Structure formats: structure tokens, C-alpha cells
Amino acid sequence: MLQRQLLPLRIVFFRKIKTVQLLKRCLDSVVPFFLAGVLFIPAVTVCAQTQPPIYQWRLAMSWPDGTPMLHNAAARFARNVEIMSGGRFKIIVDSPGRHKAPLSVLDMVRSGAYEMGHSASYYYKGKDPATTFFTTTPFGMNPTEMNAWYYYGGGLELLNKVYARHNVVAFPAGNTHIQMGGWFRKEIKSIQDLKGLKIRMPGHAGEVVGKAGMNPVSIPPGELYTALERGTIDAVEWVGPANDIKMGFHKIAPYYYTGWHEPGAEVHLFVNKPKFDALPDDLKAIVAIAAKEVSFDMLSESFYRNAIAWEKMKRQSNIKIRTLPDDVLDLFKQANDELLDRAAAKSQLAQEVVASQRAFLEKAKDWSKITDEDYLQLR
Amino acid sequence: MLQRQLLPLRIVFFRKIKTVQLLKRCLDSVVPFFLAGVLFIPAVTVCAQTQPPIYQWRLAMSWPDGTPMLHNAAARFARNVEIMSGGRFKIIVDSPGRHKAPLSVLDMVRSGAYEMGHSASYYYKGKDPATTFFTTTPFGMNPTEMNAWYYYGGGLELLNKVYARHNVVAFPAGNTHIQMGGWFRKEIKSIQDLKGLKIRMPGHAGEVVGKAGMNPVSIPPGELYTALERGTIDAVEWVGPANDIKMGFHKIAPYYYTGWHEPGAEVHLFVNKPKFDALPDDLKAIVAIAAKEVSFDMLSESFYRNAIAWEKMKRQSNIKIRTLPDDVLDLFKQANDELLDRAAAKSQLAQEVVASQRAFLEKAKDWSKITDEDYLQLR
Asked: Where are the beta strands (DSSP E) in chain B?
């Protein structure tokens, strides 16, 4: 039930409230009055004043136009900022079709070439090893746990400790929900089946499966279907039903493995720090809250679209859902822990982020076990 | 991985964008210029104009001052609206200590006595049977599923179809996360153990356990500890560790049952409809997005505080976590389905809400099973 007890109020992110200077300057000559809870200032007043500036900023996103969920999130953020600011803050969203540098969004925001970016933090691990853990970690936090860590467990502060060194203010701004483990032509029954198995799996997860004996390969998206159909590769990790359904993998590789590698990838909004710092407080708050709204909204959209696409996909073919066997998962966990330790050792800040996430995950796991996990099993 | 494909953009909640009238009227006499992406208007201009009104509204919340999470959510919402509006929109939050009517918040907002309210929709089921399902349903959607339904599955539209009849615009505005099933003095091993068992469990869940043979009783919060200690009652359903820890139940009733009855209670912001409709578009958007932010934030805060309190509580005593046995759960499910059917039959709209939730839950369950549930088990 919804209950009542005493607890001191949490201090919120924004504390300073600026009164409207513009209004104050005009108040000398007129007598305001209240009606139905609204303060009215007589209609026509003559005053000398500074007009608020109109901001026209550009945002570079890492995703092509029309990318499901991700482009929606960037566009939604820009629209909400414009509407909430009464048109004082306009953001033009550019895709890689225009800026040509999907994996250099951080650089463009850092330099000020773009005021803003929408990208994935783990794209920049080559530049700074501490950036990689803010997106997602194999066997790590799910979205609910990740958000608790970001907003109440010190995650947001660590994120900005890392990005301040890149001249950037960063906000979580979208989540894919838990991703699926990929399409396999044959079933994986034990560690023996991993040996030499060619899988398209990029990034950190690719390194994990590589350490465990698989052969992670890189193949352009346009050639994946044919490669999988012909057996040039044995498996493909993609995203989840909403994205996978158009690729058609379910028609040629019947085993769909559940995910362990990206339990909810969070994407981020990057803002050039000097430009953000120079914004008035109302627009700073509008940017921060619009980013948070879009983080929440993209998670909801991802869940919804995947649930709908999954139902459709199941009707199209005989898909066999599989969870990797325990010995394989144990091997992956071990490889992942070693890789995390190695990444953490690369910098003081990386160490700090990994330690903070691991400490919170221990507590979060216990609570998720008796709530989310237990509830989904019993209902 | 984060991927790329084509999909038409989703239409967002707010489409109309009003340009700043105030600014436009002053533009005739001056020459604006751009510098570093910011449009500047020369500092001092003389213009005849209407000043934007200052809104001073009052919000009645159902929870006493200092209620964990819930009061924070209402206060956070008010602060964020004030900051994002640059001080043009101030909201004073009143608790029942002042307005004396915690369960009549809807009436006060409907009549305009308060412009806004923060309350639980299911408190008003006596007034309108369709309101009850928007908070939570036993064996129903968890918060992630509920949010997907609200924002992408037609839930928000249904919510406002129901509340429009009460002269109110409603927004989801906070979630408790999955609640625990309560503290029991003795273990429940089968249906036989339910008979006559006295439990403090209010509302719909109380009716469910009542149908199943238990004896739901109503006892004032201040007397609960003593009643449980002396065995006047056998069990107490409260909220979750963050709220329960101060009540001390874990020291006298060692069995802590997992939850089935409130898998994430959503609370709502109510706004008097004519007053909301009369707001300018920027403030409408600020209210809607601040409510959504607080819905997300309270879920994160609830998860975090419960995870921390659970760890602390476990250290304080030897708590035995139990899930109700299958035969008991089956009996509760059956009783719940019958009660839902009966509630749905009370009005056309109630029927529509129940049908919409059940249809989405079927799809959501399948997707949650291979993502959230599977992931929490395998990691």
C-alpha cells in the first residue's frame, strides 16, 4: 500500500531559482492583481528591457535517420526542449548522413563544432577507458537498477566527473531495454560447441566470447543475412525483435538466445560544457529534464515495440528460445570479470566507476531477486 | 548492440509550438544578430507588450509531510516546474495536515478548490470503478510493462478518457516499485493455513485474500506493531523495506513474503481541466514532462531506498524470505480474476480499461519472460 512516514526531503539537482528579471524591471509602473490564482499585470506597459536570447543549437547523433527508438529519442528531446522553452531554444538534429562522423560525436561536442550530441558512451572507450561502463556491462545492472544507480547511487556524478575531462556535460538519454543474445544456426549445448564458432558480435561482448573460444567477426550489416544463410558465419548478435524482424534472421537461424551481454544499453546526451554553463538556469533545467524524460520514454518505447514485434515474429516462424547453458555462462562471466578488471586498471577513474557499479550491483541483485525476479516467476 | 533501421517517427504528445509572442512584438525596431549559435537582440529596446502572467497554484497531496518517496515526488515536481518556467509557475504543496482530506484530493481538484493534486487513482474506485486499474493490479503489469502500456499502449489516453469525466487531466507521477507481500508470524504452507488468518491488508488485495479464506482486518498504523506482537493479528502487509524498517515488524514476524498484490503502484498528478486547458503551451508541456520525470524518478528512488534498507534489515534480524505456495497463488489468481471481472462489469469504461490492460499484459508477459525474468535468473 501507499504509506506515510518521516524522512528528510532529498535535495534535488537544481536548487537555485532565478526570478524573472525581465518581469521585475517592468513592475514599477503598474499594479499587478490576482484572479483565480493567476497574477495579472495590466495589459500594456512600456518598459526598457533586455529580450531573452533565442538559442539555435545543433545536435549530432550517432544513428542514421529513422533508426528505431534512437532517432525518435533525439528528435523527441529536441522537440520537448523547444516546446518547454516557448520557442526560445531550438535544436537541429543532424544524422551521420550530414556530419559523416557517427563515432566521433564526442569530439565534435568537445570542440564545440556541435553544441550537443546523442551517442553511446562505450563508443569512446579507446579515447577514455572510463567511458565504457556507462552504457551497459555484461551480467551487470538491468535498466531499473541502472537508473537507481544513476540518480540515487552516485552514477550521474561519476558520469560527469568522467565527461568533465572531455569538456562535456553528459546525461543519460535513452535505453534499449535488455537486448537478445543473437541468432544461432545450431544449438549450443556446452562449452565444446563454442570452439571456433563464427559470430558477428562487436565490442566488449565480442572480446568476452573471443576469450571463451568463439571467433567474433566483423561483417557489414548489408551482408549479414547472406553470410548467415550460407553458413559463412554461424551466429549473429543484433538487438531485439523490433530491430531484428526486418533483418529476417529468424527465417534462417532458428535458435534465438536470450541476452547476457547488454542488459539495457543506455545512450547519452552530450553537451559542450562552456555552452551549457552559459545557459540560464531555466534552460539548463529544461535540458536536464528533457534528457531524463527521453531516457524513460525510450525504455518504454523499446519495451513496447519489442513485445509487439516478438509476438509477430513468433507467428512468422518456429523460433526456438534458448538460454546459454550454465557452463558457458560461467565461462563468459569469468572472461567478463577479467576484462572488466583489465579495463578498470587502465585509469583511476575507470577503477572508481567499476567499483561503484559493482558495490551497488551487489545490493541491487538481492532486492531484484525478491521483487522483479520472484514476481515475474510467480504471476 | 545499438542499431540502425528505418521506422516512421512517433508523433509526440505536444505538437503545436508557439513562438514567443512577446519577443516578436519587440523585433520591429531592432536588428537581431547571431553569435556562436545564439540569437542576440540589442540590449535595451523600448516596446509595448503584455507581460507573461505569474501562475501561483496549489497542489493537495494525499500523503502526510515527509512520507518517503511520495512527498519527495510531489515536492520535486513543484520545484522542477518552477525552475523550468523561470519562476513563472509556482506550486505550493499542501499535505493533509493542512487540507484535512487525503482521500478527497480528486474532489478538490475537480471543483477547483485546488488546481492540482498528487494522489493514488485507486482511492477513488467508490466514485468511479474505472479509476482503480490505473494504480496497479494483483498479478498485473510490473512498472516497466505499465509504462510501456501508458506511453505506447494507449494507457495515457484511457486514463484521460476516464478523468475527463471528472473535470481532471491526469498524468502518471510516481511509482513505488514492486511491493512486498507482508510480515507473517507463521509460515504459510498451503491453502489450509489461510483459514481465518487475520491480516492487515486494505483495498482490492484485502478482498482477494478475503475471498480465499483469510480475514482481512483494519487497524490504525500506530497500533499495528503491538497487535502483531501480541498475536491479535497474524500478518501485516505494509510496503517494502524502506518503509517497513521503521515499523520494526521484522523483529516480531520473521516470515517476509514476496509481493503479488501491488507489482508497482503508480501514483498520479491531477490537474483541474479548465485551468490546465487555459495554460499556455509551454507551461502545459512543462507540467506534463515534469510529471513524467517524477514518475521515473520516484521509481528509481524507491528501488534504491528499498535495496539499501533491505541490506540493513537483513543484518538486523534473521528474516526468512518466502514466496506463497503455488496452490495459494492459484487461489488468489482465481479470486483476483473474479474481482476484476466484477469491477469491469460496473461500467463501460472500466471494461475498456481492463480489456486494454489484459491484452497488453499477454504480449508483455511473453517478452518479459525471455528478457527481464531470464536475465535476472542467468546473471
From this structure: 33-35, 38-40, 45-49, 54-61, 89-94, 116-119, 168-175, 182-184, 198-200, 215-217, 235-236, 255-257, 266-272, 320-322
